[in-house]
Amino acid sequence: xxxxDLWLRYRxxxxxxxxxxxxxxxxGDSPMLQAAATELQxxxxxLSGTRVALAPTAVAGGIVVAGARDPAVTALKxxxxxxxxxxxxxxxxxxxxxxxxxxxxxxxxxxxxxxFALLRRLQTGSDVAETSAPKVRLRLxxxxxxxxxxxxxxxxxxxxxxxxxxxxxxxPRYTDYARANASIGINGTVLNNVNASADSLTAPxxxxxxxxxxxxxxYGIKVYLSVRFSAPVEIxxxxxxxxxxxxxxxxxxxxxxxxxxxxxxxxxxxxKANSEGQPGPRDYQRSHADGANxxxxxxxxxxxxxxxxxxxxxxxxxxxxxxQAYADFKPLDGKFAANVIVQVKNGAIDFQPRExxxxxxxxxxxxxxxxxxxxxxxxxxxxxxxxxxxPMFEETLRSDTLQKGKGSxxxxxxxxxxxxxxxxxxxxxxNVGRDRDxxxxxxxxxxWFAFGRFAWNPAADSDTVAGEWAAMTFGPDPALxxxxxxxxxxxxxxxxxxxxxxxxxxxxxxxxxxGPGPWVSDLKRPEWNPVYxxxxxxxxxxxxxxxxxxxxxxxxxPAFARPLAxxxxxxxxxxxxxxHVPWTHRMASGRTLWExxxxxxxxxxxxxxxxxxxxxxxxxxIDADRFAKTATFLAVQEREARWWRDASIAYWMSVNGxxxxxxxxxxxxxxxxxxxxxxxxxxxHPG
Length: 687
Ligand code: BDP
Known about the structure:
10% strand; 687 residues; alpha/beta; TIM Barrel; Alpha-d-glucuronidase, C-terminal Domain; 3 domains
C-alpha cells in the first residue's frame, strides 16, 4: 500500500457487504463507455473478490449502463430530463423484466460519472440508488507545472507531465490521473503554470498537450493552457502585445486556430496578467477587459473560453492589498465578452489558512465569476502537515455575501443561481506530482477528492465528504471512518491556530512560505512582509480595515459590512483581519486579546497532539506503510506546531513587552534562535 491507488483501491469488501453482480452490460462502445466498462469491471471484481464478467445483454442481478434514450430505459419513464448533460441516475429497476442495477444518463459522460458513483456507493457501504447532477459547469484543476518539470508550490515531486518524452510516450500514469479526476467529476485541467512560459504555445508543445488530451478525452477531461500575455512578442516576433493592436489580435486568432487544429476539443486559456510581474494589458494602458475580450474574440469561433484571473495587486499601489482586485475589477462589471469568466481566489489576499470571502463574490452581477481554491498547501504546512481543507471550502462557499438579501451565498455566486449565469466554474490549484502517492501524503489526497466533490456541489458538507473519502481510502468500517473523520475535522482549524489565529494572516517565512516569520520586514514590496499584515506595536495588533483604516469593509454589501465596523460585532476568528485592537482588548471569552492569542496558539498545538494520539490508536486497523508515513508526518507537524507557536509568542512579547499569560509555557528558545532558522532548498519555491 503505497497510496498509488488513491480512493479507487477496490479492495475486497467484508462478505456481508460485498456486491454480488451477475455481469456488467454497457450499451454502446464509445471510448468513454469503454472506460466506464473497464472501471466497473476493475472495481466490482476488486470489491467482490471474484472476476465479474462483461455481458452483451442484461443478466438478472447484473449492472446495466445505458443512455436515457435507450428504448428499454425510456420505457421506465425515469426522471432523466433533470439530469442535464452531465448528471446520472443509479437505481434498481426491472429492465425489460430483468432485475438489474441501472446506470443511466443523457450523455456518455453522465454514464461514466454514474459508473464511478455506483462504485463509490459500494465502497462506502451505501445504498446504490443515487441521482445527481453537477451544479457547476467548469470543474478544473490548475497545474502550476513548469515546462522544466518543476511545480510551483508543488510538494509531491516533479510534474506529472513528462514534457521531454511527450508526445511519443504517454505514461500510463496519465490514464490513472484521468480516472481519479473523472471519479470526482473533474472535467478539465489547465496543464501549465499561470506564471506561463510562452513556449507552451509553440508547435512542439502543442503536440505534447495534444497527446495528453488524447489520453484524457475518454475520461471527459478537456485540456486548457495558461498563456503568457506577451507571447506575440516572445514567440510571434511582434513588437507589441497591445490588445487593441490589430496585428496582435490577428496573431492570437492564428495561434488559436493552430491550437484547435492540434486539439479540436481544447477548452480555453487561463490568464494571469499584470500580477506579480506578469505582462498584461495594463502595460499598454488597456484594461483587463480589453485584454480578456481580445483573447475571447480569437477563441470564440471555436467555442473556447477565457478564464481571466482577478489575482492582482500592483507594486506602485499604496492601497491595502486586500482592496486592489476589487478596485480593478468591479468597474469592469458588464464589460467582459460572453465567453470570459473571471477567476477569483477564495479570499482577497492569497490562499491564507483563513480569509474572509473575497469581496468580488456577489459584487459583479453581470460577470460570471469562478472560484479559485488552492488544493496544494502552500500556506498550510506543504506536504507534511495534515490539514483537511473540506471545512475551508465549506466555510467560504457557505458565507453569505448578503448582496441580494439573505441567502446570497458564495456558493450561489459560483453556481450561477444568484445572478442567473450559465457559465460557472471552480478551479483548484492541484497538489499532485510524481510521488507514488500523488499528493505527498495520504491525507493530501483527501483535499484533491474534496475539491472535486465541492466543485460538483458547492453546497456539499465537509464531514460527509470526509467520510466518503475515508471509507474509500481505508475501508468502510463505520467506527474506523468516524475516527478518521474526527482526526480530519479540526485539522485545518489547528493550522489556523498555530500559525495565524484570530484573523492574523501572512505570518510565514519568506519565499517558500514554510515556518514562522512574523518579524520579517525587509522585503522589497511592503505587502510581502508579515509586519504589513499584523501591524503590531507596543499598544496593539491587527489591520484596521474599517473607515478609520483602509475601509476595505466598504467593498462588501452594507449589511455584511455593518457588524464588521465594530470589534465587538466582528467574529473573533476575523478580528485582527478587520481591526487594530489593543493587546488589552477584552474578548467575549473574558480574556484579554493577548491572553486569547496565546490560548489559540496553544489550542493549535494541543489539537495536533490529539490528532497524533488518535492516529496512533488506529495502528491495528491501517496497513503498515500508510500508517507509518502518516504517523511520522504527524510527529513532524506536532514539532512544527510548537515551533510556530513559540516563535510567534516570542516575537509578540518582544513587541508588546507583556509577560506570558499565567499558565502558558514559555517558548523553548529565545527569539534570536527562531529568527536564525534556515530552510535549505525548501520545495515548490520559484527561484
Ligand atoms: C501565490 C504564490 C505564487 C503564485 C501566485 C498566483 O505564492 O507562487 O504564482 O500565488 O496565484 O500564492 O499567481
